[in-house]
Amino acid sequence: MKKLIALSDCNNFFVSCERVFRPDLENKPVMVLSSNDGCVISRSNEVKDLGIGMGVPFYKVQNIVEKNKVNVFSTNFALYGNISNRIMHILNEYTPNLEVYSIDESFLDLSGMDIEKIEKYTREIVKRIKHEVGVPVSIGISQTKTLAKIASKYAKKNLNCLGSKYIDSSASDEYLKLIEVKDIWGVGWALEKSLNKEGIFNALELKGSDIGIIRKKYGVSLQKTVLELNGQSCINISNVFQPKKNIIRSRSFGQKISKIIDLQNALSTFISQGAADLRKHHIQTNTLSVFIRTDKHRESDQQYRNFFTVTLPHASNDTILLTKTAVEALNNIFKPNLLYKKAGIMFSNIVPESDTQFVLGQDLTKTEKNKPLMKVLDHLNMKYGEFALHIASEGEKPKWTSRSRLKSPNYLSSWDELPIVK
Ligand SMILES: [Mg+2]
Questions:
Q1: C-beta separation of 288 from 329 below 8 A
Q2: Ligand 1 centroid to residue 77 C-alpha, Å
Q3: What is this structure's pTM?
Q4: Rg of the chain's alpha carbons, rounded to an integer?
Q5: What distance in Å separates the CA atoms of residue 385 and residue 396, rounded to the nearest whole number?
Q6: Which of these is catalytic: 18, 46, 66, 105?
Q7: Disulfide: which of 34, 86, 165, 331 matches 155 by Cβ 3.0-4.6 Å?
């Protein structure tokens, strides 16, 4: 049986999400900015045609934006996450073996299906997602993940594919020729220069390279890429939940802050979000780190950065305990009279809840006491929005929040922001 791996990739995902609720923006230039409205992170095809690059700072293209009446949005991750979930649920109906690779990409194992009909079949999936969710996707199918990625890129660029392209590994050369090495999955710009020096500029040339030399010079992961380009599947679809190694929450502030209370507000919010994430995945953290820093781009400001790590007496996902610990950690590193630009928290040494070992002398009445409260907290915040019930130290009107002046409403996760039919 020939292996069949499909990659489903949403087209211009964040822009497409914004258009779901603003159909008037179809065929008009639309782009989405990173947090603090800093850089361009998603572009409609019309914006790409204007020559606006990926990742460029917004202020550098502001003229082009105004002249061409580009519709600009701040990121709205709540909305994008929600739409992404809906798409993944639909994809999951077509195979139990689904790997959610990123917010807009998934691998599907379709082995056993009739190769002759695979494009027709996946076109139906593309149609269904467009119809039910409103987002355009491109699906590439081949014998390996690396080739499926290349096929989906081809499907996206060539409208006559109607959203889906099958590339058989034995007949892939004409497509591989078109792909620059830096655009191959798992290669990237970091390796581009040295591969170019070896005379390898495109995917076909990498496919034909000497596997022994590649392994020796670049290691086993590039060797796998070469094998995958040759049709030999080396990277399996993994649908098992991998416990997270670390959870990090951090943000650049919308305005610089100097008071400890404002930093406390920010850190408390990061802890709340991170702890909710721990509970959602039934995991706990053993270690908590807190970090703060001034604006490294403002050389005229006095510079300072520091972090503080606390090993907890026992693993926990209790917002109240973790917040108290973070506030104490902050007290250890905070310096007054500085302008802080960024702060964050990190949970590490994460273990499943079921693995938790009780420590001798641990006061169970204290550590277990908050569990029902955390359940209520998660339930209410799910129902009424993330900030409905929160720890007092998060503050009421926090100063630190990012600038996102151009954010669209949370159409799917907030009753107050539902679209209104006129
Ligand atoms: Mg995409």
A1: yes
A2: 15
A3: 0.69
A4: 24
A5: 15
A6: 105
A7: 165
